[in-house]
């Protein structure tokens, strides 16, 4: 049996709060399932939101996320995926 961890880590909570504040979302950041999609059926975000998220990550963590990155579908797949990329690219 495979166990799925749907609890946010402390770092995922930080990123969730940043997402909610930078996108002015009317949700509690603690309710974001870290493995749920951020776009379409998940939080319902769009490409403009992706640009806002990239800007927020750049300002807050000093990392660069590019709009033309071929891995964007993977990078922005979920809160957990985004947190993993931020951790791996932090200075």
Provide the fold topology:
Blueprint: H1 10-23, H2 47-61, H3 72-75, H4 79-89
Give the termini distance in whole angstroms. Answer: 37 Å
Number of strands: 0
Helical segment tally?
4
| Overall average residue pLDDT | 91
The coarse silhouette is globular
What is the CA-based Rg, rounded? 12 Å
- Give the percentage of residues in beta strands: under 5%
Sequence of secondary-structure elements: HHHH
The CATH homology group name of the domain at 27-89: ACP-like
The percentage helix is: 40-55%
Taking pLDDT < 50 over at least 5 consecutive residues as the criterion, the unreliable ranges are none
Class by SSE composition: mainly alpha
CATH third-tier fold name of the domain at 27-89 = Non-ribosomal Peptide Synthetase Peptidyl Carrier Protein, Chain A
User: If classified by CATH, what would the architecture of the domain at 27-89 be?
Assistant: Orthogonal Bundle
Question: How do you describe this structure in short?
Answer:
The protein is mostly helical. It has a domain at 27-89: Non-ribosomal Peptide Synthetase Peptidyl Carrier Protein, Chain A, CATH 1.10.1200. 48% of the residues lie in helices and 0% in strands.
């Amino acid at each position: 049996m495979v166990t799925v961890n749907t609890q946010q880590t402390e770092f995922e909570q930080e990123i969730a709060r940043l997402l909610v504040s930078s996108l002015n979302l009317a949700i509690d950041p603690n309710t974001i399932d870290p493995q749920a999609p951020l776009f379409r059926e998940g939080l319902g975000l769009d490409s403009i939101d992706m640009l806002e998220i990239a800007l927020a990550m750049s300002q807050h963590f000093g990392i660069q996320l590019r709009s033309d990155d071929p891995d964007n579908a993977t990078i922005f797949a979920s809160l957990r995926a985004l947190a993993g990329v931020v951790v791996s690219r932090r200075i």
